[in-house]
Amino acid sequence: MQSIIGYFNKPVLKISLVFGLITGLLAFVFFLALYFVGAAPLSNIRVLDMGIFIILISGACWYYRKNVGNGLLHLYEALTIGYVVLCVAAIVNGWLIYLFVSYVDPSVFTDYISSNLKLLTEGRNTQLNYLSEAEFVEIYKATQNNTPSILIKDEISKKLLIGIIPILIVSLIFRKQDYGIYSNKP
Questions:
Q1: Are 99 and 27 in contact, with CB atoms under 8 Å apart?
Q2: pLDDT of residue 137
């Protein structure tokens, strides 16, 4: 048991988990803000919450560099911080959205499914250029039969896909090492 506790007692992991939890909660607050404003909270406008992710990943890298790394941050540390923050935040946000849609207001999910079905129907002719009729019907039925649990997988997969480039950029910006060709040491 002590080895498990020792494994999770690393500053990179602790800081990343805390920032990931905060990021997930703030992304859910953004979801709630969209809900209360009257916008469709599960629509593509929710991609704007990626700004929250980028700001807090940057904050986590900065905090680690300043307080733990004594002004230094290796690329692998920054990438680890970025991906752990992103994964934890996506899991927390996905679960909170799932719980909201399941227990508070299920109409948000039904509106989401109906908008997806409408989008499929409107683009049917285009999609039949590269899909057969049977494949299109299968996709349509699968979309109809989706349950709210699909939102968790959807949140995690989309955030991991969208977050690759921003995490690399943030990691390269905050990276500072005490060795290399550009260091001032003789």
A1: no
A2: 80
Rounded CA separation 139/142 (Å): 5
Q: What is the rounded distance in angstroms from the CA atom of residue 37 to the CA atom of residue 17?
A: 30
Residues 6 or more apart in contact with residue 169 via CB below 8 angstroms: none
Confidence category of residue 131, pLDDT binned at 50, 70, 90: confident
Look up residue 34 and give its amino acid: L
∠ CA(60), CA(61), CA(63), 5° rounding?
A: 65
Q: What is the pLDDT of residue 184?
A: 59
pTM of the model as a whole? 0.86
Euclidean distance between CA atoms 50 and 83, whole angstroms: 13
Q: What is the DSSP letter of 180?
A: S
73 forms bridges with which residues in the sheet? 176
Answer whether residue 180 shows pLDDT above 60.
no
Q: Provide the residue type at 121 as one letter.
A: T
